[in-house]
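Lab channel / #folding
Pinned by the channel admin:
"Please post every new chain as: sequence first, then the C-alpha cells as a reply. Keep commentary short and put observations after the output so the thread stays searchable."

First post following the new format, from NK:
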Amino acid sequence: MLSALLSQATGTILWFCLLLYCAGCNQSPANGTKLESQLFERVDVLGSRGSALGQFTKPRSVAVDGEDNVYVIDMTGRVQKFSPRGEFLLSWRMPETDLGKPKGMCTDTNGNIVLVEPHYQRVNHFARDGTLVEQWGRPASQGGEFVLPRAVAINSRGEAFVSEYTTVDRVQGFSAKGRKQFVSFGRAGDGNGEFNRPEGVAIGPGETVYVADSCNHRIQVFTRDGKWLRTHGRPGRGAGELSYPYDIRVDSEGRQFVCEFGNSRIQVFDAKDKPVEVIGGPGIRPGEFNNPWSIALDSQGNLYVADSGNHRVQKLVRQR
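Reply from TO:
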C-alpha cells in the first residue's frame, strides 16, 4: 500500500513539474494594455524574470528578422527566438562568455542575426536556426579591428557599421565582402563628430548613419562615408532632451525612435529631429520601463524594447 501511494505521489509530482516546464517553454505575452501614444495602440509584454525558456535575465539587445520573428540576448549569454505573436521558438547559447556577455544585435542582408561580443571584440552572424555562419574581428591590441565594440548596423549594401569606446570613441564601416574597413570617424570629445561612449547605431534613409552618443546625451547623424551632418538632443528630461540614449532605430520615413537608458523611456523624433512624443517612464507596469537597453522595429512598424531592469521585452503595437 505504502509503495503504491509513493508511486502515485511521485507520478503526480513529475506531472506537475512537466506542466511547469511546458508553461515556461510556451509563455505567451500579456496582450492588450492600451498605450497613450500617437503611433502605438497597445503594448504586449513578453517574458518575465527567470532562467526557463521564454524568460529573461536582463535582456540586453533585440533584433527582428525578415519574417518578423524577434531575437533576444540576455545577460546569461543565451539567444532566444520568438514568433511575431510572442511564442517561444528556439534558443542557443554563445560558445564563450567568460570574458563578458554579448551586446548589440541587428540583421544582415542575408537574413542572418548579427551579434556583437564586446569583450571578445568580434562580430558574429548566425543563421535563423542559431548556426554560426560568419565570425570576424580581432582586438586592436593584437593588430585587429576593435576596441570594445558596442553595436552594429548593416546597410542595404551589406556594409557593417560598428561603434566602439574606451581607448577610442569611434564608428568604423566595413565592406560586405572581406569585411575591410573603408571608413572610420569620430574621436573622444563633445564637439560635432566627436563621441563620448557611442552605443546604438542605425541606418536611415539614403544610407545615413545615426549614432546614439550616449554620454553626450545626444544623437549624431553622418553620411555613409563619415561626414558629420547634424546633431540633436541635450541632457535633460524634457521633450527633445535625452539621458544616456543607448539605442536608436530609424524607419523608412526618417522617424527616429530613441531608447533612453537614463530616463527609462522611448522618445520619438521626426525626420527633421523634432520631438514627436515620449513613451513610458520609470516603472513596472506595461508601457513603463526600467533602464531599457535596446530596441528593434519590425516590418509592420511595431517596436520591441529590451526592458532590461524589468527582465522582459515589451512590444509597442503600431496603430492600424
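NK: The radius of gyration is 20 Å.
TO: also worth noting, Confidence is low (pLDDT under 50) at residues 1-28.
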